[in-house]
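FAQ

Q: What does a record look like?
A: Structure on top, sequence underneath. For example:
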């Protein structure tokens, strides 16, 4: 073979080698880049993927050998310096309690720390403290996105601990404790947790000034949320408590000055909300539907305490056994509630209920609207859909009193005449949610004894409806296509009655379309880096060809 042919073969071999190297770099460099990015974290993938580790105890008492300084030397420690903005971190751990202890115990600590995305199970079965995560005399902790399922007693338990955040955790398992337990613990936030199949969902005992919000507690054996034994000034807001096995959605027991608002209570076998031997609690703007015994119950066992001065306002109480039930309590106020379609009695006043005010409530299509066995209760100014008298002077007040059944001989001396607009409650879609080009479903409740027609609008055209369903897809698409990403869409529902009264309510949702790729070329960063390396390799090939071409010319 001649010298010239040999040079051409060598040149081809160089080209092939460069292409192979470039392709390999295209695969290797993105993977290496990803590994470099993750090496910042102290914890390695081996800790997470190697299976359960032993329980962890951190005691930050002076002189303790298991303090945070010790913890920072352990292989399961994720990083942080223990200050606000850079908390100590335990993350991505799997811990088996071995049936004898807590999975993670933190004691006597005021340092900032965070426990995140840990899987904790098989903690001990003792009655006092055994839990997936147990905080004792601790402040400034964040317990976030942990799974504390299949634990015999408490999923997460706080004892004498304050200013902690328990958020976004998940726990279930048919066992004997509460999902989240606070005992002698104050000023904590418990939010957005999901708890199912525990004995109780969330339990507060002698714990005050806590915020319990936006949790979902379902299908627990006992109570969904239990606030008991001198737990005062707590806010219970935005929670959903549904389908407990034997008891009420929320119970306030021997506790005062709590604020229970904007919760959804569904299909609980006793009450949606139960107030027992407790005073000065506010129950406002809750949706209380289809609970077996009562929507809201306020009562006291004789000799067990004195419950009085509770305030019930703005609640929608629909489809329960009794709507509102009071027994052995006094000086309560029941104002501005919608008591609708309850099977037995809308508002039931039993024995030893005295000096309460029941006013400006709307009672529609209940089995019986009211019953009063108490003393000196004021019923003036309610709307009764079966009021049969007239309003000859058109002052909005019925001309003769409305008689309240029961042994107290109570009357509503100023019953509201039908001068009100239909009541509209929008259950879906929720205000502020993001929606797609597929028309959303709607669920609305409309109350009026003389309802004539219902309709909704999303643009300029009114669309009649007779039952809950889906927004008209053609109208929805026309509006959707005319809007920009992030624009709001207003859905307005209307109803009128045979007297010409018009009611309306609306909800605003937001148009959301799939986000554009962040690198602007339709590729993720790993793919983009791969193609960059390929193009770089091709450039190198062309340079090599140039060099070999010049050598051939020179040698020839």
């Amino acid at each position: 073979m001649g010298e010239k042919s040999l040079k051409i073969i060598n040149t081809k071999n160089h080209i092939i080698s460069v292409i192979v190297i470039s392709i390999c770099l295209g695969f290797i460099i993105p993977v290496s880049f990803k590994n470099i990015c993750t090496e910042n974290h102290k914890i390695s993938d081996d800790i997470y993927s190697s299976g359960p580790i032993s329980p962890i105890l951190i005691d930050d008492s002076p002189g303790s050998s298991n303090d945070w300084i010790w913890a920072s030397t352990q292989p399961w420690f994720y990083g942080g310096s223990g200050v606000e903005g850079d908390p100590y971190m335990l993350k991505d751990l799997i811990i088996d309690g071995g049936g004898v202890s807590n999975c993670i115990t933190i004691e006597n600590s005021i340092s900032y720390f965070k426990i995140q995305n840990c899987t904790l199970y098989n903690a001990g079965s003792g009655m006092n403290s055994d839990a997936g995560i147990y905080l004792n005399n601790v402040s400034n902790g964040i317990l976030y996105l942990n799974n504390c399922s299949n634990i015999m007693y408490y999923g997460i338990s706080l004892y004498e601990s304050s200013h902690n955040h328990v958020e976004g955790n998940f726990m279930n398992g048919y066992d004997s404790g509460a999902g989240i337990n606070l005992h002698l613990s104050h000023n904590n936030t418990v939010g957005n947790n999901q708890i199912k199949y525990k004995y109780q969902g969330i339990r507060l005992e002698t714990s005050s000034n806590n915020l319990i919000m936006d949790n979902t507690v379902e299908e627990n054996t006992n109570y969904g949320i239990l606030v008991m034994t001198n737990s005062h000034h707590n806010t219970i807001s935005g929670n959903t408590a549904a389908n407990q096995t034997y008891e009420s959605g929320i119970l306030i027991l021997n506790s005062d000055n709590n604020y229970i608002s904007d919760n959804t209570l569904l299909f609980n076998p006793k009450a949606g909300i139960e107030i027992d031997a407790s005073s000065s609690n506010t129950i406002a703007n809750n949706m209380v539907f289809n609970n077996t015994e009562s929507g809201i119950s306020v009562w006291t066992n004789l000799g067990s305490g004195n419950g009085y001065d509770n305030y019930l306002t703005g609640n929608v109480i629909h489809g329960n056994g009794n709507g509102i039930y009071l027994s052995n309590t006094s000086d309560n106020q029941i104002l501005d509630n919608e008591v609708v379609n309850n099977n037995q009695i809308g508002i039931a006043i039993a024995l030893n209920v005295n000096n309460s005010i029941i006013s400006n409530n709307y009672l529609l299509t209940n089995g019986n609207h009211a019953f009063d066995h108490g003393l000196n209760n004021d019923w003036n100014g309610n709307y009764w859909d079966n009021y049969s008298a007239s309003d000859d002077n058109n002052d909005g007040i019925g001309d003769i009193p409305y008689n309240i059944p029961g042994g107290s001989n109570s009357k509503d001396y100023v019953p509201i005449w039908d001068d009100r607009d239909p009541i509209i409650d929008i259950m879906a879609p929720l205000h502020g949610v993001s929606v797609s080009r597929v028309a959303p479903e709607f669920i609305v409740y409309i109350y009026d004894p003389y309802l004539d027609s219902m309709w909704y609008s999303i643009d300029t055209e009114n669309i009649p409806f007779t039952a809950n369903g889906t927004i008209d897809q053609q109208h929805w698409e026309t509006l959707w296509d005319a809007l920009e990403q992030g624009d709001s869409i207003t859905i307005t529902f209307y109803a009128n009655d045979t007297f010409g009264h018009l009611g309306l309510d609306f909800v605003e949702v937001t148009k959301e379309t799939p986000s554009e790729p962040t690198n602007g070329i339709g590729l993720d960063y790993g793919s983009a880096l791969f193609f960059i390396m390929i193009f770089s390799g091709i450039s190198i090939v062309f340079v090599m060809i140039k060099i070999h071409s010049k050598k051939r010319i020179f040698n020839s």
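Q: Is there anything notable about this one?
A: The chain has four domains: 3-40+519-555, 55-198, 229-420, 423-511.
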